[in-house]
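Pipeline run #58 for the internal structure catalog. This entry was flagged by the ingest filter as a single-chain record with no existing model, so it goes straight to prediction. Upstream metadata was stripped on purpose; only the residue string is passed forward. Reviewer on rotation: M.T. Logging verbosity set to normal.
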Amino acid sequence: MQRRAPFRPTAGVPRTALALIVIALGAAGCNVTKTHYSRDGFYAGATAIASVSSFDDVNGADLGESDVVGGIGVRGGFRFRDQFAAEVVYEGNQEFEFDNNVDVRAQTFSVNGKFFPWTNRVQPYLLAGIGQFDAEVDSVDFNEAELFYRLGFGVEGYLSRTFAAIFELDYNMPTSDLDELTYTAAQVGFLIRF
């Protein structure tokens, strides 16, 4: 009776190829654990803004129409506990121009809180904020700063561990003398995570 050689699962595969496969699979597993998009840490970003006014009147000047203007925004914040972030935001708009020669220039400084229900590569969020709304109206010699509230939602899409594209839509509600100057802002930009 002839003796058979014992079965070896690697008999047809060179040991170096098997070692390379094991190393590649291990590296892929490590890469998955390192890509933690919702990790704690600081971030900074910038956005381009398109704002749509819903102004009724300014200091007695009846506007009764809408205008769309561009602007810029910068932000810095801290992400913590996977699903939360706190940030400081500056937004400056170009002048809203109306037919009756009323031009309104608006800028905001706010502190926002964010909640992220999902923490994958694409992360939608809800936001709420409070801050200072500055409005200047040239034609009626009006310059005022008041408290305002912001509500909105957005999405961060991570292109890498440290770089994300963002889209955000928020509704801005000034108080007191500026309560007629509400507007909606759509923003597109980027974040850098540190």
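catalog note: The helical segments are 15-34.
catalog note: The chain is about 10% helix and 55% strand.
status: ready for reviewer M.T.
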